[in-house]
Amino acid sequence: MTKAITINNLTYQYDDQDLFDGFNLSVEAGEWVALVGHNGSGKSTLAKLIVGLIVANGGDIDVFGERLTVDSVNDIRAQIGMVFQNPDNQFVGATVADDVAFGLENIELPSDEMPQRIDEALHTVGMENFKEREPHTLSGGQKQRVALASVLALGPKIIILDEATAMLDPEGRATIMTTLQNLKAQFGAELTLITITHDMDEAALADRIVVINDGRLILDGSPDVVFSKSQTMHDNGLELPFAGELTARLTVKPEKYLDERELIHWLSPSNK
Amino acid sequence: MAITFEQVNFSYGAGTTLANPILHDINITIADHQVTAIIGQTGSGKSTLIQHLNGLLKPTTGQVIVDDLIVTNTTKEKQLTKLRAKVGMVFQFPENQLFANTVLEDVMYGPLNFGYKTDEAKQSAQSALKMVNVAENLWQKSPFELSGGQMRRVAMAGALASNPDIVVMDEPAAGLDPKGQAELLALVSNLKEAGKLVVFISHQMDHVVSVADQVIVMQDGHVAAQGTPADVFNRDIDWFKSVNLDLPRAGQFAEQLRANGVSLSRRPLTLAELATMINEEYEHE
C-alpha cells in the first residue's frame, strides 16, 4: 500500500520544551485516521508540522513519498487541504461560490473550468443551493461545509480537519459528520482523511484512531480496539463514546467493545 | 439578587419597517444562589435573552428587574453601568476578546474600569485567576501564547475579577476537551457555593443535568418550559422532538432500549443512574 504520510523520528521544541521527541507515525493512502488527544496534547501542532506551517527541529515528514523541505513545501501543500476550527475565520469571498473560487484562482485554474469545479465541490458537501448566499448568513455547520468545499475544489489527496466541529451546535456537528462519511464513500482510496478531535463520537467514524498525549503515541488501532482501553483513555484526559462509558460501569459486560447500536442489541431481550 | 422578566418583548429595529421580533412575552424568575441553564436550538432566542441580563439589550416592551434595578426601554446608560458591575458576562468563545500584553493586565482591565485602584485590581485579578486554575507562571505571559483551554479560563477570570454577584455564560464549555469541560462544571458549582447566581446557555444536556438547579427551555423566542432538570427532562419524548432538543445521553439510550423491548422503570438522566438501573435489571434475572 502507498503511504500518504510517513513521520519518522520527529522532534519539535516549543518554548524550550520538547513537544515531540522521536515521534513516529504513518498513514496509509485512503485511510481515515482520527487523531485524538486533550487540549494541549500536541495534535494540532502535528497537523501544522505536516503542512509545513511550522518547522520541525529534527526528523522527517514524507507526503506520498516526497520529503517535506523548504523546496518541496508548496508542492506538498498542494496535496493537502485543511479545515480549521473557527468557521468565521475562513471566509474571503462575498458569496459562497466566490469563496470556493478563491482557491481556484490561486492555482490559476482557467476560468471556464471554474463553474463546474465549484458546482461539483458544493454538491459534494450538500451546499449547492447556497451558491449565491453571503457567508455570514450561514449557520456554523453550513460555513464549515463551504470551507470543506473550498478545499475539495482543489482536488487534494489528503484533507486534515483540525477540530472542525468543536465550535458547532449538535445539529451542525451531525451534518459535518454525515458529510465526511459521504466524502469517504465517494472518494474511497483517492482521499486520505485526518480528523483531529476530542469528540469520541466523531473519532468512532474513522478507520483508525491514534491517541497522542504530550507528543507521545499512546494508542493506535481501530475504534473498537482503542475504545476497549477505557483506563488508558481516562488517564490521558479522554472519554469513551457514551456506549463505552456505560459498558465500563456494567457488572455484566459484553466480551468485546460494542458501539451504541450493538450494545442496545446486546442488552435487548431478543439477545437473551 | 434574583432576576425577573415581566412581559418582555424584544425586536431588533423596533419602530422601523425592518422590525424583527425575537423575544415574545417572556415572564421568568431566576432565583438567587442557584444555577439556571438556558437551552433551546440555535436561533431560539437564548443569546438575546441573556443579553438583557446586563443591559446590552433593553426590552422593547416590558421590564427586566435585577435585584433593585429595573431595566426598561427608556433606562439610561448610567443606570446600566450599575447593572454591569453586578453582572459578569462571559460570551461565547471569550478567548477571542483577549487583548492585553499580559494575562494579568487582561484580567485587571475590568476591575480598573469599574474604578478599582491598581493594587486592588491586581489583587482581584489574581484571585480570579486562581479561581479558574490559571497557573501563576502564566500570569506575565501574553494571553496569545496560551493554549485554547488556558485562554478560555483567562477570559473567564476577566469576567469574574470584579466579583460580580451574577455570572452569565454563553456556552462556556463549547470546544473544550472532556477535562476542560469537567473543570468548567466544577467552576460553575464553586461559583454557586460562593453564593453567586449563575446563568448559562448550553447545548449539552448532560452538563445541564449535572449542575443546573433550574432549566429554561426557549423555542422561537418563547419560553417553552421552565422547571428543575428532573421536571423538564421527564417530559414526553415527542415534546423534545417538537422543541428540537435531545435528552441527556442516558435518557436517549434508555429510549432506544425501550424501543428494543427493554423497559426501565423510569427515565435515567445520568450515566451513573442508567448503569445502576441496567445492573439491577440483570441481577433480577
CATH top level of the largest domain in chain B is Alpha Beta
* Average predicted local confidence, pLDDT of chain A: 92
Could you tell me how far the N terminus lies from the C terminus of chain A, measured between alpha carbons in angstroms?
Answer: 43 Å
Q: Which segments of chain A are poorly predicted (pLDDT under 50) over 5 or more consecutive residues?
A: none
Please give the alpha-carbon distance between the first and last residues of chain B.
Answer: 52 Å
Q: Note the beta-strand portion of chain B.
A: 15-25%
Strand order of the largest sheet of chain A: 6-7-8-3-9-10
- Total separate domains of chain B: 2
As a whole number of angstroms, the C-alpha radius of gyration of chain A is 20 Å
Q: Biggest sheet of chain B: strands side by side, in what order? A: 6-7-8-3-9-10
Oligomer: heterodimer
Secondary-structure-derived class of chain A: alpha/beta
What radius of gyration of chain B results from the CA coordinates? Answer: 21 Å
Q: What count of helical segments of chain B does DSSP give?
A: 11
CATH homologous superfamily classification of the largest domain in chain B: P-loop containing nucleotide triphosphate hydrolases
- Can you tell me the overall shape of chain B? globular
Please outline what is shown here.
Chain A has 272 residues and is α/β, with parallel strands linked by helices.
